[in-house]
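Practice problem: AAA family ATPase
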Amino acid sequence: MDAKDLLRIIEDGENAELECKAAKGGLPKDVWETYSAFANTNGGIILLGVEQKGQEFFPVDVDAKKLVKDFWDGINNPQRISKNILVDRNVEIIEVDGKEIVKIYVPRASREDKPIYIGHNPFTGTYRRNYEGDYKCTKEEVQRMIADQSPIPQDSKVLPNYGLNDLNMESVRSYRNRFSSLKPDHPWNGLELKEFLYKIGALGRLRETNEEGLTLAGLLMFGEERSITEYLPQYFLEYREKSSDVPGERWTDRIISSDGTWSGNLYDFYFKVIRRLTDDLNIPFQMEGLFRKDDTRVHAALREALVNTLAHADYYGQRGIVVEKEKMLFRFSNPGVLRIPLQQALKGGISDPRNPTIFKMFMLIGLGERAGSGIENIHLAWKEQHWTAPELIEEFQPDRTILTLRTTSLLPQESVDFLKAVLGKHYKFLTNDEVLILVTAHQENYVTNTRLQSLTDKKSDEISKLLSGLVEKGYLEPNGQGRGTKYTLTEMFHQKSIGNSRYNRISSGPNVNNSGPNAANSGPNENEQTKDHEKVLLDISELARKKKRLNPSEMDEIILNLCAIKPLTLKELSQLLNRQMDPLRKKYISRLLKEGKLEPLYPEQINHPKQAYMTRSLFTNQH
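Answer key — structure tokens:
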């Protein structure tokens, strides 16, 4: 890295992957908290010799060589930190404007090394990173990291007090029928039940005592829900389907493992859900010779996504498995973060499933590809359809992995037409990458550097240049700082949408696709109501747009009045109030939610991409 690259990082400011410290008085004590936090999350960069003034960062005079020596002394001291995961090249001195800055790159620690902690006690010295900074991990978070260290998979554990009476025998018979149909000549077909279950990993023995019992994989795959939750109280499976875009409308189809009408195990959940995921896919059939082939790469990708969700979940974690289907997306969410770095998971080729026995059981009946190829196959399927690239993210507190598959075109004509309408003759001067960025911001309400890395073959620094260029042109507005910054379309796009109901993002509310099949049915009364809402929203928020400073109680009242008209996303509120999204969320929305004055439109998934907020009274009236 040279001085130019470092200056760009400094200009971006602090974020979840960057921490700047002035270090004027020597090596800061809290550098170890940041080291722990980066190592236990997704890695990051620590800059020593950079001072923050307001929202800007400046190099300052420090003794860089002494800082480097003190840092190496500390990180190699087991009394100070549990483990050094750095090598020499991770620490360097870079000169910027005549001043020396110490750059420390902290990689993401392997699961075998986590947790990285300060002192002798992981339960008091382990940190992680979020957009607020470093935070001390809870006891449960540390326990999950320690559990993932083990080379012995969690699902191979033998449960000596669990046996055949805890299984749903109809599930077992169905599995054996599928196995024998797929592999009619396999020698396992002639085995007795117990021996068959032992071969596939559902049954095991403790070698020390020769005591027999179900494995955790066997209990999860074929068990009765009551037996599973006796051992794993947090266990929960849920499928939710919504066929309408109407805000606030409840799910049109829902399956949960605890309703008592079926076994509640993973095997039966898979087959109940996969049919619903694929039964109305609007994918052209293919031909194999003279025969029609209804099963496409997209069908296979959805099977892969569902198997991966079940095989990678941490069943000791919180909030269970949730699979969602909406008009234009599929979402797969499971407890537990990835056991390999996120970027490696996206590239494919390497896999570290948390439950390899469950994965093996699915593979034995022809479900699931070889380890490491799942995400790659899903990407290929979505690329083949020219759909928006899959999005894979990790969340913490609690730990979750979320895969979102959108069936929207990579460059939807609606969004391209919108850009052309706003930019006019300037549209033709945009590069293909710039069009993709603006379209993504329009379709998904915002765009980030990380998201664009999954959509393009460009590196983070190249994307940063593109984003900065669009900000300079006045097309994007940054909210937050650093590579975690969310970029939204600027006011010029909002004004165009206000003047043209075809492109109106605020009037449609979250989840409404104005180009959908029912769009033509919108009568004049509905259009008039939309215009009335636009005017009311603009009138209510006029004071906030005109005044940069408002009394917090005044702003509270304006927000609550706006959200009483209709559910509004953070982006819509930001545009109406002329305030940046990140400060608006931290200072007002989060507090109003805690006080119970606002309610999220999607309370069961706080980070839903279409999350919107409404006043308590509106929420009560709609439900």
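Discussion: Confidence is low (pLDDT under 50) at residues 498-526, 618-623. Students who identified this feature from the tokens alone can consider the problem solved.
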